[in-house]
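Dear all,

This email documents one entry for the complex benchmark we are building for the journal club exercise. For each entry we list the sequence lines for every component of the assembly. Then comes the predicted three-dimensional structure of the complex as a token string, followed by one or two observations. Please use this as the template for your own entries, and keep the labels exactly as they appear.
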Amino acid sequence: MASHGIEIKDLYKVFGPNGAKCVEMVKNGMSKAELNEKHGHVLGLKDINISMPAGQIQVVMGLSGSGKSTLIRHINRLIDPTAGAVLYEDVDVCQMSKAELLEFRRHKTAMVFQKFALLPHRTVMHNTVYGLEIQGVDKAEAKKRAQRWIERVGLDGFEDHYPNQLSGGMQQRVGLARALTNDADILLMDEAFSALDPLIRTDMQSVLLDIQQELKKTIVFITHDLDEALRLGDRIAILRDGEVIQQGTGQEIVLNPADGYIADFIKEVNRGRVISVATIMSDTPLEEATKVEVHPDDRLETAAHAMAEQEETRANVRDKSGNLVGSLLLKDTISAMVTAATH
Amino acid sequence: MSRTDLRDFKRGFDDAFRGFTREYGESIENFFNPLLQFLVWFEKLLISTPWPLMIIIISVLVWAGSRSWVLVVGTVFSLLFIGYLGMWEDTMYTLALVSVATLVCIIIGIPFGILMSKSDRTQAVVTPVLDIMQTIPSFVYLIPILLLLGIGKVPGLIAVCIYAIPPIVRLTNLGIRLVDKDVLEAADAFGASPRQKLWTVQMPLALPNIFAGVNQTIMMALAMVVVAALIGVRGLGMEVLRAVNNQYITLGFMNGMAIVAIAIVFDRVSQKFGKRLQKHTEVIHG
């Protein structure tokens, strides 16, 4: 199944009874604080334009109150926008009729929630088939499909347990299985792993990346955790006070923070895991022999590890088609990992 | 209003109501006829069933509802005692009335509770009506019911239902409104229609509250048994009333205790059943 991208265009959300009027004021330059003070309306989202790539993971990152949860709820229209459009397959989700919207939610999207939002009166199996049940899929068929995903997320043997018999991590596996069983193109994940312990969170991230390699769904992942954003995101958009302040790949953001706010954010980031070899390598392959060869898309950490292992101080860079495309020095690698890289 | 105006107003209203009764009394009676037939049939069924069989049936129901041997044994002893003291037939009349009244309350009350939960406006209108139904002295609405339908089983049943229906309506409404918003949002996200949401999320999660409502309704129906006797409903209430009129202390206590026994059995069984419906809340991860 080919996935499609999601286009968010000029999206505004103002909470309050007179939202539409307030959008005009915001467009004319009124600030969030002023709007709240003078008109009692809360600016949720302002002029959001994001092009979410098909079959990849788009991360939306921001602190609490930045509007990220509001934004993800516009994609399946759990929240109606005040102005703007959300396009999927050239159809504006915001213009759909009630019936069309139900169909869209049933067949095109699936969602995973921060607080799991499982049905407490249903077992793991009956939670997992929920989406298919709503679609009206035959029970036996639904169970068969659900079983596959229950096993895939590592919950086989727990089919007949109730959610409150499971730990948080396992409950979210149910949430993930429930969403995946829907077999929708779009997977919406609203701070899906934020409520989990750090170790379990990393574990779930691996499960997600692993599954994504196989499925290539269009995933929108909301998080407040930069490490999580950098690990999962093919593209990242950073939100503050309802505005996108920077978007790009993780590397772009780490190398060129748009402002002091983001620079502060990325200070603690492990650069070795974000910056790729291609960014700092020289274009000329080595003349003398070296035992180490790395790939341009490898992260610096991997390259440094490979060189250290072989007790080499330099490496050749060879691309997918097998051509030597450049070289890398250990000292450059290390300095890019520990200081702000310049290029 | 002056005294004469007031008197004319009251008399005018009463006359108008009597006129309405003469005009429509029969069709209203016909309307309730199926209910009467059902109640009579149910009473006959309970009374004509041989008592040992009846005790077995009730015990099985108690076991099915509560899964408690203690309760089954207690029920059997109470019933034997009731029979031994010659109150079997009256108990069956009361049992029939309370069962049918509860059934009517559930059939009308739950849909009403659902409607109420769907809109704040409906809730704002219905809540004061329920308050009135619960607090107004029952004799006050006995008068128009008597005028309309005369003395008998149906007016008694209606009086019982008016008094007993509010808790089930209230608790159905409350139960649905208390359902976790996060879970409802999840149902929305998966494209559940309002009807699907009601049956897959709201009703199942409201069930414990709805059951508390059923329990309260049963208790209130039992409390109305004596008042219903005033307008001619046979059963334990009638005997209590006879005891009051003749100052028979023992008769009053015996029949009163029989009502208490039925009440305790109904209460414990419905509570235990309600608890068993929440199997999922029993085991909690440590």
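Observations: Residues 3-48 of chain B form the longest helix (46 residues). The interface with chain A takes residues 180, 182-183, 185-193, 196, 200-201, 204-205, 207, 278-281, 283-285 of chain B (CB under 8 Å).
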